[in-house]
Design goal:
Blueprint (H helix, E strand, L loop, with lengths): L1 H7 L4 H7 L10 H6 L3 H9 L7 H7 L7 H13 L2
């Protein structure tokens, strides 16, 4: 089952890349990342920001995110293949 396989390889991006038979993601130092296009904001989002949620937007702004089409399509394919 796809979900179980994803959980098994959830030891980070390298494990996911290995599961996909893809090369590991590139490693970039903080110093190098600060010089790139995203700069300090990208470094912050990639290294410091944790636990983000849409809960406040849902509660205070009536935010109703739509389903991601590729997730729905993928689920439908896996359901039909397991029949």
């Amino acid at each position: 089952m796809l979900t179980i396989d994803l959980i098994r390889c959830a030891n980070g991006e390298r494990g996911f890349a290995q599961w996909l038979n893809a090369p590991p993601p590139p490693q970039v130092s903080v110093e190098d990342a600060l010089q790139m296009e995203g700069g300090a904001d990208a470094v912050y989002y990639g290294t410091q920001m944790r636990g983000v949620s849409n809960a406040k937007a849902k509660r205070e702004l009536n935010f109703q995110p739509r389903s991601l089409e590729w997730v729905v399509d993928t689920a439908a394919v896996h359901t039909s293949n397991n029949s």
